[in-house]
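Many introductory courses stop at the sequence. We go one step further.
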Amino acid sequence: MQPSLTDAEYGLRRRVTKREEFLTMMDGIIPWDEWAAVIRPHYYDGKKGRKPVRVDTILRMYLLQVWFNLSDEAVEDQVNDSYAMRQFMKLDFAVEQVPDATTLLKFRHLMEAHGLGQALFDAQTRYFDEHGWIMRGGSVVDATIIAAPSSVKNQDKTRDPEAHQTRKGRQWYFGFKTHVGVDAGTGYAHTATVTSANVADIDQTTALLRPDDAVVYADAGYQGIGKRADVLNDPSLAGVDFRVAARKSTLATLPLFDQRLASRQASVRAKIEHVFLILKRDFGFTKTRYRGLAKNLNRVQVGLASANLLMKARAQAIEHRLTTAG
């Protein structure tokens, strides 16, 4: 893009916003060429109808939607209004305009129909593998609840039929449950599933493990995982060391050595909480915007791939500051 008078004016600011810092960081870490190559075979070829929006442009707009938890219409408005978002989109209004909400909606449906959220997640994992940023041999598994609107004030007068209610402690929740497996060494997410909220955490364990996982860390909700038939009957899982946390009532009665060991294992399990923190706090995915398992699974997969990249970008920024200071 050719620098404009607006760019020159904004360059004189005393302070860069957190939004602009975040978008600059993500722009520098995402493997754009590889992600665009994943989408391009499924994208509108433009042989009939109007000229298609460039893949990289609509992908950037879609990522803004995921990261800032915006509706299709809100993304269009925000890009038109925000200098930082326009810069991230690499748009020159003298040449092209922001894609409209309908174009983004069709792209989102394309992502969901072809499972491209999983494809981008896999591409991100390969990218990390190629750069040696992932360790192997162990995983941490856990789940978190994503609420869904319980109101029936909609066109169908019904709640989401694929969501369900569940009880956690003394609190009832209605929605979905995101089950995630992360690398025990680095904390990067590698696998995810989405189910109704009433599905037990332990039921999704085997779907979250990698073929080379020898050790799996889990909280007390996974008690008895090593004795389940789906584990015992699978030769690749029968030898896995499941290190499941003791319940609080049992932990207090353990010898001091075992309590210290449990504390160290808890520090490993805590790595998955960083992923949930980014997904729910930074990306705002505490409540679903769209209905159904497929749409929310696609959202989770793109969100987790982005969370991994954000964690890596932050780690690189810290390393750069330490190197510069030294």
